[in-house]
Write a structure and sequence with these properties.
By secondary structure, the protein is of the alpha+beta class. Helix content is about 40%, strand content about 15%. The protein has a four-stranded antiparallel β-sheet with strand order 2-3-1-4, covered by helices on one side. α1 crosses α6 and α3 packs across α4. The structure holds nickel (II) ion (NI).
Amino acid sequence: MERSVIPAFNTRTFSAVTLMRTYIRNRTAGGLYFFTVNLADRRENALLVDRIDNLREAFRKTFATHPTIMEAIVILPDHLHCIWQLPPGDDGYSTRWRLIKSHFSRSLDVDEHRSASRLRKGERGIWQRRYWEHLVRDDEDYARHLDYIHYNPVKHGLVTRVKDWPHSTFSRWVAQGIYPEDWADGGSNAMG
Ligand code: NI
């Protein structure tokens, strides 16, 4: 889990902050939150991408009853990072995560291919109970976390170019003109 270090991009690779200022101001009526949520077993576990349709359905079901704007998300094999915007006056993210985890876990219960180790542990063993949550403070904080999310597959060594990871909102933000398609290509040196 990468809870403390948000890498800073140099001016060559960083593009989002200036472009997004006006855009963000128009959209922050409710609270913006960044989350990191992990599977319990992170060794050679690719459950989240193997069962990404189950995960999408778990989000869909939850947000149908608990309105939430998914500003950005990246799904990695064994964890995910995302930014939500909640309706004004609504800070009920813990209920939402409980529902998402539960919907996902139960969708696997009826799956005949469930692994032996998960069978032993039962559904509650699938997710880490704790998760990291952070209230986004301002535009710059938002932009940093947005970059963190979209760069994450490169950071974890899953791909070498941000655009090559299919399980994130990067392409959506490219389509909106916030990132260039080749954003942060070759940026790993700058980030240490
Ligand atoms: Ni990560």
